[in-house]
Write a structure and sequence with these properties.
Number of strands: 14
Distance between the termini: 8 Å
Bound molecules: ribose-5-phosphate
CATH class of the largest domain: Alpha Beta
Number of helices: 11
CATH architecture of the largest domain: 3-Layer(aba) Sandwich
Order of helices and strands: HEHEEHEHEHEHEHEHEEEHEHEEH
Helix content: 25-40%
Number of domains: 2
Shape: globular
Strand order of the largest sheet: 10-9-8-11-12-13-14
Length: 329
Amino acid sequence: MASSGESAEAPPNIVVLTGSAHPALGAEVARELGMPLGVCRTARFPDGEIQVEIDDLEVEGEDVAIVQPTPSGAAARGDALLELLFIADACHRGGAASIFAVVPYFGYARQDARKLSGVPLGARVVTRLLGTAPFERVVTVDPHSDVLGACLDAPMVSLSAVPLLVEALDGELAERERDLVVVAPDVGAVRLAREYARRLRAPVAVAYKVRTSGAEVSIERIAGDVRGRRPIIVDDMITTGGTMVAAAGAVQAEGSLSDVTVAATHAVLTPGAMDRLREAGLRRVVVTDTLASSASEYGATVVSVARLLAASIRHVAMRRRRAQLVLHP
Ligand code: R5P
């Protein structure tokens, strides 16, 4: 029994694989876990179909974590979701003991409600697709919608990058100044803004956003007092930058200081987004590396989630191992 207890506490060996969506993050997660990055070759057949190859001997009998954000369209490098499913299938057929999907950015999560007739529930479609793979856990960061967890059969581990972003903001802001105000640029970001505000010990203001198209938004009004305060506008993601720019304009029109900081977990950043922020005078931008992005080339602060992901993977693998020991002592 003593030896069982000891092995339960030993850090588990985890094979970390990564697809083509964000290999740098996969490598960093492996490094944080003290493991070499596993072999996973991704390419395309001549007709463009996804080609994946892993090393069966490497995954057989092992816990495998596949690190792959699933952006789409302009932000994607290939078809990230399908590639993730292919890698998972290869691991399953190669005899992996368990497979964790590590999806730091979850694409299509914004299509979580049927606001118009005639449109699909995209978030549900995507989670059902993910459900076709034998994932023991799905680990994600600041998902846009709770619908993801509700639709997935596999348990979802939802991590928050807010503590990391606040730590970076604290450094950027030099000190916790009393004149800050945390701004939610739309109602959907209020929960996130409250969490930032609690940690920064600042009040919250809320912008009421109306989206007129995919790239166009306007702010109807601001609830909360922003006058004479330094705004920190927080959101789960920056896509075109339109939301941040509109919110920054609206709070300044309400008398905030012009020294605006924006912070978001996911730097989706469609082409031109960083230029848009820069042209609007938003020079202090803090994001994470849940996605491969060009943010740092534009002077943004990019905080890595690799350690956060590695800690979660290690925790999940340890729990799994303990459960196995209880079932098969
Ligand atoms: C939407 O609900 C999201 O939380 C973000 O506010 C949105 O995706 C940001 O997009 P954009 O940067 O294009 O305004």
